[in-house]
């Protein structure tokens, strides 16, 4: 997609909204696609005319109606057909790229509303039931952070983004990612071009792991190292013998001895060459077309140190850039792919072609194989940074978090859930060690959603991304959750014991992190009786706060509110509530200070059609 397809906005003008930007870019790509369709139709017609002209002239010559000199006209028409076919193929490639731009901008529009929930790449392969927060905070899976952010074109980029969402980064690393993503956010041209280049290079999402494995493997042709000089000398000797035979210096039959020797060399080396073939073909997966991707990165002018470092890693001092190495790899791989040509057996017999091609590729692997991982890691990081930048571009109301020096702490103003289209904002303050929120409230009032909002924004913040808040301040910390505990028939684990195991994992992790932890616990220990749950819940909270951690706990057990009075801990009671309007329950999802003084479980049952009675109401009526 050329720059002419996208409207230019003055540097002093107010930047257009994401919706307008994507709409205009999609329209430009669709217009280009329509124009290319017309060009393609013209080429198709011209190719048909050229073919018919070649066939018609040849027919008239064969029928004797035209002199034989007209064979040249037929040949010229066939050459024209070939030229038109090449040009037509280039139009097909441009059409494919225009379609990719249309798709990218449609995805951008979908990401501005609920449409992103239909994206097929949800990151399920990164789900781990034992992870300390990703299952509870919708980091992967349907309706997840990964599904919202992911716009990678390679498996390596996908894995890098998943790794960032799965583990908190240091303050220095977070600030570096923020700075790089801020620079990339308004540069939609570069981000989309990079993505289109990668998707155009491979039909499926390319995975460089096998390619890197091949490149880093040991020498594969050592067993036939002798064949390299033989492949140079023997065909020349055979040719010389043929020439000398024609001049009757040697018997003409001696030429066949040379050809027989070459055939023997081809047979002996066939197996090792096939093994190398299999290794490189399994790993290649479209990487022969990756030169334009690296070329685009090399040509981009970056300002942020992190981006400059990634770019400089693509060129060693005194050596050509990575794009040139990939262009050479593409040429060498095409020499190996010549084996699919119908004349390959003859050419290989006469020149020992495959030996030359495979040893040339082996030299490339020996020279650059150890650098390949670094090149793809740089590309993967650029893809992950582009995803973070995309979120910043698409959510201009999000803010960049501020990293605090001392903690743990999490403080937010107008915090919302980043996965909701219209979240109700709330302020959250956990300003220092041993601070916690004890959240009470009626069913469906927003308790768990608030905790997930806190957790999801912390995950985004420590991945280097912007967050759904007006102001957000935190320290690097480990997030620990217990929300969606499941029993397991297969492992013979009851719900209660599964919850106990989860709490033990949370406590162990909090101690290992020396209190640099945010814990989020939702209605813990529901699988036991009320008295023991009250005792155990209080002790678990004391143990967590004892490590210096901060966090939040939701509960229906109002007796836990007494923890706010304990010395040394800073537990604050907050709550959500509901109210009736025309016989219907209504929620405002606003966080309030203090302990809730209403309940709604029986009301919810009645509204669902379950005929339950309240003994207290019956007594009051009497």
Topology:
Elements: H1 18-62, H2 71-111, H3 145-149, H4 155-166, H5 171-184, H6 188-201, H7 209-216, H8 227-246, H9 254-284, H10 291-299, H11 305-312, H12 322-337, H13 344-351, H14 353-368, H15 372-394, E1 402-403, E2 410-415, E3 426-430, E4 435-441, H16 447-461, E5 471-474, E6 478-482, H17 495-512, E7 517-522, H18 530-546, E8 550-554, E9 570-576, E10 578-581, E11 584-587, E12 592-593, H19 601-607, H20 615-621
Parallel strand pairs: 1-5, 4-8, 4-9, 6-7, 7-8
Antiparallel strand pairs: 2-3, 2-5, 9-12, 10-11
Please provide a written account of the structure:
- Helix content is 54%, strand content 9%.
- With 622 residues, it is α/β, with parallel strands linked by helices.
- The chain has a 6-stranded mixed β-sheet, with helices on both faces. The chain has a 4-stranded mixed β-sheet with strand order 1-5-2-3, covered by helices on one side.
- The protein is elongated and about 115 Å long.
- It starts with 17 loop residues before the first helix and ends with a helix.
- The relative contact order is 0.09.
Task: Summarize, please.
The protein is built from 20 helices and 12 strands. The chain has 622 residues and is α/β, with parallel strands linked by helices. The longest helix is centred in the first third of the chain and has 45 residues, at 18-62.
Give the biggest beta sheet: 6 strands, mixed
Structural class, from secondary structure content?
Answer: alpha/beta
User: In one word, what is the shape?
Assistant: elongated
Our estimate of the beta-strand percent is 5-15%
Beginning-to-end CA distance, first to last residue: 78 Å
Rounded mean pLDDT is 88
Whole-angstrom Rg: 34 Å
Continuous helix count: 20
The low-pLDDT segments are 1-12, 487-492
Strand order of the largest sheet: 6-7-8-4-9-12
Number of strands: 12
Helix proportion range: 40-55%
